[in-house]
């Protein structure tokens, strides 16, 4: 097994070169660490298979699928209308698998004086309507936003949930690790990362995960509260998708079956994500 981490995190498990047993998975950075772990354990059970996994964003994974460069597109969002139309126009029939659920964590610097924010205030901060923390924490401190590129499913998810466009001043980062590092070093910073990334060891305690309340006066909920996620009470929670073309369906079924097995479900839970059956 060989691990490579460049602009995207990739896993290549060297095995049989037979194309009938070679599976290419591309897409969501939210899902990439989990996909790597699943692929590792799948290979232990099915050594005749070769699984290649890379991130780069949900949009990239979907485009790769459309261009015949992937067997599975991992995506932290559903297809948008334009993508759905393009697949239909090209005669590409897709199977859709919801293999886990995730929560998006809103993070700030460890020394940020508040433990929670309400959604309306968060929307103003992320859109740039508020560009200074002074009215929120009483300290004159410009707000610095750390987010993802527009092809990221997490970018699209957070933007739609907040009902705003992100500030043009927002810094566009390549993935969870870069956002974490940016906020870790910036007392004025705020960003969003996958809760699974934090629960799976991505946080060393140098950032603060905010509890979120949908409306002022309502209870604030943490994305790390598994009971709240199971009950569907956290504002930023979502299903994680895998899109598979009909032409690859037979080949990838053993991998999908492994994800849905007891071993696969335990790997999903232990990696900080939530199994679909838990809802």
The structure class reads alpha/beta
Residue fraction in strands: 25-35%
- Report helical residue fraction: 25-40%
What is the tally of beta strands?
13
Mean pLDDT, as a whole number? Answer: 89
Shape: globular
Largest sheet: 11 strands, mixed
Report Rg: 19 Å
N-to-C terminal Cα separation, in Å?
A: 34 Å
* SS field, number of helical segments: 11
Order of helices and strands: EEEHEHEHEEHHEHEHEHEEHEHH
Explain how this protein is built.
With 279 residues, the chain is an alpha/beta fold. Helices cover 37% and strands 26% of the residues. The protein has helices at 29-45, 58-66, 81-89, 119-127, 134-137, 153-162, 176-184, 195-202, 226-230, 246-260, 262-270, and strands at 2-5, 9-12, 22-27, 50-56, 72-75, 94-109, 116-118, 144-148, 171-173, 189-194, 207-209, 211-213, 237-245. The strands form two sheets. Strands 1, 2, 3, 4, 5, 6, 8, 9, 10, 11 and 13 form an eleven-stranded mixed beta sheet that branches. Strands 7-12 form a two-stranded parallel sheet. The longest helix is centred in the first third of the chain and has 17 residues, at 29-45. It starts with a strand and ends in a 9-residue tail after the last helix. The model is unreliable at 1-17 (pLDDT under 50).
Keywords, please?
13 strands; alpha/beta; 37% helix; 279 residues
What's the gist of this structure?
With 279 residues, the chain is α/β, with parallel strands linked by helices.
Topology (elements, then pairings):
Blueprint (H helix, E strand, L loop, with lengths): L1 E4 L3 E4 L9 E6 L1 H17 L4 E7 L1 H9 L5 E4 L5 H9 L4 E16 L6 E3 H9 L6 H4 L6 E5 L4 H10 L8 E3 L2 H9 L4 E6 H8 L4 E3 L1 E3 L12 H5 L6 E9 H15 L1 H9 L9
Parallel strand pairs: 3-4, 3-5, 7-12, 8-9, 8-10
Antiparallel strand pairs: 1-2, 2-4, 5-13, 6-10, 6-11, 6-13
